[in-house]
Write a structure and sequence with these properties.
The structure is a single chain. This protein is α+β, with helices and mostly antiparallel strands. It has one domain: Homing Intron 3 (I-Ppo) Encoded Endonuclease, Chain A (Alpha-Beta Complex), CATH 3.90.75. The protein has a three-stranded antiparallel sheet with strand order 3-4-5. A two-stranded antiparallel ribbon has the order 1-2. A two-stranded antiparallel sheet has the order 6-7. Strand 1 and strand 2 form a beta hairpin. The N and C termini lie far apart (76 Å).
Length: 124
């Protein structure tokens, strides 16, 4: 068995083609909304492993980005290399830069802010 045989077998087992988008959706372990698997002795994102297996090594400091905006996609045709700055620019251009009321970690609503602003101030 070659070193790549086991990861390829995992891809055959856990990558499910989605017929409408062409994505291969990762059905194995996930880590922070991305597929994950063990590769070369470490847990890694499945899309990075896919890039490595099908296109070649990921250079140091580079990110593997999705053309399809689907974090669980591992289709190598949907993946490309870029910097973290490219990833942030892509996020902004595609409208995935969530902030304010849409952010999942927000704590205050506009009503709560208005209530706080209406509280009397304490003069010391």
């Amino acid at each position: 068995m070659t070193r790549i045989a086991k990861p390829m077998q995992l891809f055959e087992k856990y990558a499910y083609p989605e017929p409408n988008t062409g994505c291969w959706l990762w059905g194995g372990t996930n880590l922070m909304a991305y597929g994950a698997m063990y590769f070369e002795g470490k847990q890694r994102y499945a899309h990075r492993v896919s890039y490595s297996l099908f296109k070649g090594p990921v250079p140091e400091g580079m990110s593997v980005l999705h053309k399809c905006d689907t974090p669980m996609c591992v289709n190598p045709d949907h993946l490309y290399l870029g910097t973290q700055q490219d990833n942030m620019k892509d996020k902004l251009v595609r409208g995935r830069n969530i902030y304010g009321l849409q952010h999942h970690k927000r704590k205050l609503t506009p009503e709560a802010i208005n209530d706080i602003l209406r509280l009397p101030t304490n003069d010391f």
